[in-house]
Amino acid sequence: MIYAIISDVHANFDALSAVLDDVPACATILHLGDLVGYGPQPNEVVAALTRAVGVMGNHDAAALGLLDVYRFNDAARASAEWTRAILDEPAKAYLAAQPLVRTFEEDGISITLAHGSPYEPEDFHYIFHAEDAARAFGSLDSDIIFVGHSHLPQAFEAGADRRNITMRRHGLRGSADELSLERETRYIVNVGSVGQPRDGDPFASYALLDTASRCIRWRRVPYDVGSAQDKIIRAGLPSRNAERLALGG
Length: 249
Ligand code: ZN
Fold this sequence. Notes:
alpha/beta, six-stranded mixed sheet, globular, 249 residues, binds zinc ion
């Protein structure tokens, strides 16, 4: 089975369209939340993904009024309020139906989807360091935990004893961006962000999982950043939301 795993689209329909064009026709699309927030086209993004299985992100929860935005910075809070006002009923219903964590099995590989860490998922902890990864590995037994939230494409690996956790950056253009899944190893895989990359590369990021050949591949996809920026400005969203798209940060 081939899965295309996308995350943090953030209402950037230009980036999502380019990614959907890049996804192989045989792939099943999974998403890791934050479909909305920051960007100008939340309804279009949700409508394009209503057949995809996914989880709820903190920006989705904020747009639904399920999460207090006091911890958001000014641009994120203003974006959440804008999004809440513009979301249509089908988009609200789809987002509200997404769980915080999903786990399933394919070709003998147990797979979990979560937006932030699956440890206390309602708190959307980031996984930046080995200690964060250890808590996530300790919260369930899945072979692969797919996450988004930090917008940084990378993978943490741990042996069956959860010791010796290592982290590697992935999804860097022009570098080896494949990961072969070993049988006695567990993984936390961050697929990066479709709609607002933060690793210094403005290209949209996502990952492909082939459960038969036990391989993960990160993909970077160019898209019309200028078009997305124009829509952000015209919508009256914070200009910072537009500027950062060109920087990948
Ligand atoms: Zn996000």
